[in-house]
Amino acid sequence: MKFGVSRRRIAAVAAGVLSLSASIVGAAPAQAATTLTWLVDDGEQTLAVANAEIAAFQKRNPTIKVVLHKRIATDANAVMTKLAAGNMEDIFSYNTGSLFQALNPAKTIVDLTKEPFMKDVSASFKPAVKAGGKVYGVPYGPAMGGGIMYNRKVFAKLGLQVPTTWAQFMANNAKLKAAGIPAVIGSYGEPWTAQVMLLADFYNVQAAVPNFAAQYTAGKANYQFTSAATAGFQHLSDIYDGGYLQKNYSTTMFIDALNMLANGDGAQYPMSLFALAYMPKEKVQDIGVFAVPGQNAKNNGMTVWLSNGVYINAKSKQVAAAKKFLAFLVSKAGTDAFTKSQGYQGPYFTAKQSPAPATVLPAIADMTKYFKAGKTAAALEFVSPLKGPNLPNICVAVGTGQISAVVGAMQYDDDVRKQAQQLGLSGW
Amino acid sequence: MFKRSTTPFMRARLRSYPVWFALPLGAVFIVLYVLPTATSFYYAMMRWSLFGTDYVGFDNYKLFFDDPFLVGGLRNTLVYAGITSGAKVVIGLLLGVLLTSSVRFRGILRNIVFFPVLVSTIAVGLTFQTLMKPDVGLIDQALKFFGIQDAQLLGNPATALYAVAAVDIWKGIGLATVIYIAGMAAIPTEYYEAAKVDGASSWHGFRFVTLPLLRPATNTVIILSLIGGLRSFDLIWSMTGGGPGFASDVIASLIYKNYQSGFYGLSTAGNVIMFIAIAVIIFPLSRFLTKREVAQ
């Protein structure tokens, strides 16, 4: 034949195609697996604990696969952009409090108020993920106290006491400087670390001005005219003016600062206690923490950050499976997996959790003392939706001596005003 | 055989023939550049965030101008653009002259000079940030070798912007050089021969033949590098993030910070302001430079 293919050849090819498609169909799994995507930040420990949770969850739920997606830890706009563009993962971890409020949860996040697993979530946590009377997230991790971490060996060597007033703190710093040890480690290479001391000072602010948060949200109180609030900026100036920072404070990074503290190359580092998981394991026993001291030795308390939250994207197509995963996170198995990965860092915001171990890290024991004495306060971002986005850089500008504390307070007030107007708050 | 060689209809079709070549790219240009610029004027008048869009008129512009960091940002932008543009013109010219003369390894040198232009800006930024790190970075160690202790190039608020400008110059000089080389190649050698016959030295040749005839190339380099410098963002953001504090903030990074906070309308207003500001600077400058070009 001149044109065409022989009939035998056609039959052979057809048989081959049919058998190939049959084998593909035959190889399909008997039960279709659901895949969930989970967006977390790319901190080393964040990934470690996330993988631990996924492993523990998938053991109990083999038909649901959870895949991690990463975003840059210090750049939160990835979350806002993804929500705005509509390509967010099924589940995502994010802050609670004012940052959560800024995501417009009513439109972007699945409402969890009536879910059965929400009864296992502590009442003290729910306000941090509440908007318009509905609850939108589950807690992930323990409460994190913020204060000034210190190297106990260095303190013991110089015979220093934990300070309960700012004056005592500065006196300690002078002694450290005389001994040639940088008193306070500055990691202004990562601006977010510069704001921690100011935010952790909030216990003292609300102790001096109990209704500051409400007045501040209504636009009736601000940082520059509330001396207890300006004190936060003044602290940064005091440390810079006293020359108590280490040599390369402008470019030092978070992990470098933690290593310096662990090795005793610096005596103190204002930070939240989640940082303990990032420190060298053999040295973390040497670390203690005390609350940022204020003016009053008798009312010395620690500012506490509620844990981050895990949320379900309203546009997700796997909401049922996602709810199963969230239910696991607040179960005893979920919190145990967290403890196994990160060590015990304090109680979780869930009803069912393993009891605290007999021995905890000295820093955790220090933090628990404040809880036991009832001397804790939630950070401002949990009692007000306002937290100016430029605060980290303003703190760096004050902490590196570029502007005074008063100017810093003024700039921050302007920044907050801009945010309030953009959020459409009344009274501004 | 035909009464006329072309009919009016044919002539119109022949005239429109080149337009068809420009149409595909023109469509891309309109969709990706003109349309977003036009819609940005609309969005700049809205309070636009994750919470929706409300019309607020010129409030966003007012808010942007009220920004306490705007004055510093404007100053930094102008300083940065001026320094990088000026350096690229001068050094680019010198390199262009060098790389069109008969120097050994001319081809390899041209490649070396042009190579930084091709590399990703973010990669360059992160690399130089590491090189400038105190104690461990190679640039810092080199400075120590020459006696400059404790350089803190990026950590010192006074030097951060200039350190970034230096990296920008290193990265962009290749493009200026290439433009100058092209300009020099266009100068007919007869002019140099005529000048030599008249007894001109090589310096006179450079001053009275090369420089004037390079004016179109110089104008191109000035305009391009000035626009680039005024708009510069990636390098500054990857090297310092606008820091320390706000010491190296420019208009583009201020706009980006507003975007990061979710204030999309405010950020768009900032972009419109930057667009208008750059147009106000560049159009008169371009007219002035071109007039001088024509006059000579």
Quick structural gist:
Chain A has helices at 7-27, 44-60, 77-85, 98-101, 105-108, 152-158, 166-178, 196-200, 202-208, 212-217, 227-241, 254-263, 319-329, 332-342, 362-372, 391-399, 405-423; strands spanning 34-41, 64-71, 91-94, 130-131, 134-135, 137-140, 144-151, 268-272, 287-290, 302-305, 308-312, 376-378.
Jot down its keywords.
heterodimer, A: 428 residues, alpha/beta, 5-stranded mixed sheet, 17 helices, globular, B: 296 residues, mainly alpha, two-stranded antiparallel ribbon
Structure commentary:
The complex is a heterodimer of chains A (428) and B (296). Chain A is an alpha/beta fold. Chain A is built from 17 helices and twelve strands. Chain A has helices spanning 7-27, 44-60, 77-85, 98-101, 105-108, 152-158, 166-178, 196-200, 202-208, 212-217, 227-241, 254-263, 319-329, 332-342, 362-372, 391-399, 405-423, and strands spanning 34-41, 64-71, 91-94, 130-131, 134-135, 137-140, 144-151, 268-272, 287-290, 302-305, 308-312, 376-378. In chain A, the strands form three sheets. In chain A, strands 2-1-3-11-6 form a five-stranded mixed beta sheet, covered by helices on one side. In chain A, helix 2 (44-60) packs antiparallel against helix 14 (332-342), helix 11 (227-241) packs across helix 17 (405-423) and helix 16 packs antiparallel against helix 17 (405-423). Chain A is globular. Chain B is mainly α and 296 residues long. Chain B is 74% helix and 3% strand. Chain B has 13 helices and two strands, in the order H-E-E-H-H-H-H-H-H-H-H-H-H-H-H. Chain B has helices at residues 8-43, 59-66, 70-100, 106-118, 121-131, 138-145, 160-185, 189-197, 202-213, 215-231, 234-239, 251-260, 264-295, and strands spanning 46-49, 52-55. In chain B, strands 1-2 form a two-stranded antiparallel ribbon. In chain B, helix 8 runs antiparallel to helix 9 (202-213). The longest helix of chain B is centred in the first third of the chain and has 36 residues, at 8-43. Chain B is flat. Chain B starts with 7 loop residues before the first helix and ends with a helix. The model of chain B has no long low-confidence stretch (mean pLDDT 91). Classes of the chains: A alpha/beta (428), B mainly alpha (296). The A-B interface holds A 75-77, 80, 83-84, 102-104, 107-108, 188-189, 191, 247-251, 389-390, 393-394, 396-398, 400, 402-403, 410-411, 414-415, 418-419, 421-424 and B 47, 49-52, 54, 59, 63, 66-69, 133-135, 150, 152, 154-157, 241-247, 257, 259-266.
